[in-house]
Write a structure and sequence with these properties.
The structure is a homodimer.
Chain A: H1 3-23, H2 30-36, H3 41-47, H4 51-76, H5 80-89, H6 91-98, H7 101-112, H8 116-142, H9 151-171, H10 178-193
Chain lengths: 198, 198
């Protein structure tokens, strides 16, 4: 894509995120996205098939950032438990980077439930997280940090803590210090996985 | 309330739950609830202030059942860890008893965010769960089952596992066997809390 194309695509994404957050996903139309980003419908449809496609790209864009951060953190850590704790400590940034996307996610999800393609696009990344976390636990068992636990179960537990905290932080932002909740919860779970008490 | 009044109230709740689940909360009006339950608007408003009030009562009704079950299970358990594991094992029934209410919850929550009174009604019960779970952990420390952990943190972790699993079971029902996920996750967390390895 040429640089002007990339700039246009970026503008559509930025403007859409702002409009979705302000007016809700259902109440935002392609026409409004076009007028707010001073583009023709032709230009919009050159880049995206629909506003659903824009939203999926906004999710993927956020998750790419999250993945990059997580890989970076795990790569630097001296052990799997240390890596998982560092990941948990970065959740505040993950929450902040989500920047309204999760609220739209809940609205979008309701719309997407009857559309198989959109649905799969929506659910795929977080099923991948579960696999990634199971692999990390397996590595922890191999390196001797963890006892020989069921890695799938442990990966699901870690993912449930992350997703549960994220969703609660959206549903009830003032209900707790959610970045602290995830950090302390992961710490307790790691104690449960540990080969010996630390 | 006289028995006819109780029957009418129950009918409104049943019919509303069915309509909310079929058509969505936003797309269901009081007029439709009245016509489907063959009641006048006067009769409806005698029992409920609004359809929001009906939904809050549906949530409370479900949660009363959950609370009764949980108290029963904890009362019978020989120790706190056993009690928590039994609670986790009953989650399949909790999920089933929710019976569409959680999907409506997500839709309702979006609407409620700008209404302080409804919002508080929506969030209060699950803040209470967090306190209840913290108290249970404290009891576990007192009885010597758990090491001297931060009970608030542990209660939040348990609640996050429960809420996280519930929400994921709604968002992605086929993504995992959610009742199994909660059982195994709570088991791992209990291992992390344990005074000694079991």
């Amino acid at each position: 894509m040429q640089s002007r194309g990339i700039a246009t695509r970026g503008r559509i994404l930025r403007v859409s995120l702002r409009l979705f957050a302000q007016k809700g996903f259902n109440n935002t139309g392609v026409a409004q996205i076009c007028s707010a980003s001073r583009l023709s419908k032709g230009a919009f449809y050159h880049h995206f098939e629909s506003k659903q496609a824009v939203f999926l790209e906004l999710m993927r864009d956020w998750l790419r950032g999250v993945n990059g951060q997580l890989e970076n953190v795990m790569g630097k850590a001296g052990s799997v438990p240390q890596g998982l704790l560092s990941m948990a400590s970065r959740m505040r940034e993950v929450f902040q980077a989500a920047d309204g996307r999760l609220e739209i996610f809940l609205e979008f999800w309701q719309q997407a439930r009857r559309d198989r393609v959109v649905w799969k696009g929506l659910m795929a990344p977080y099923r991948e997280y579960r696999d990634m976390l199971a692999q990390i636990v397996r590595k922890g068992v191999r390196e001797g940090s963890f006892r020989s636990v069921d890695a799938t179960a442990a990966g699901q537990a870690l993912e449930t803590l992350a997703v549960g905290t994220l969703l609660q932080s959206v549903l009830d932002p003032g209900g707790a210090q959610w970045d602290r909740v995830i950090r302390r919860s992961v710490r307790l779970l790691i104690d449960g996985l540990a080969a010996r008490r630390q």
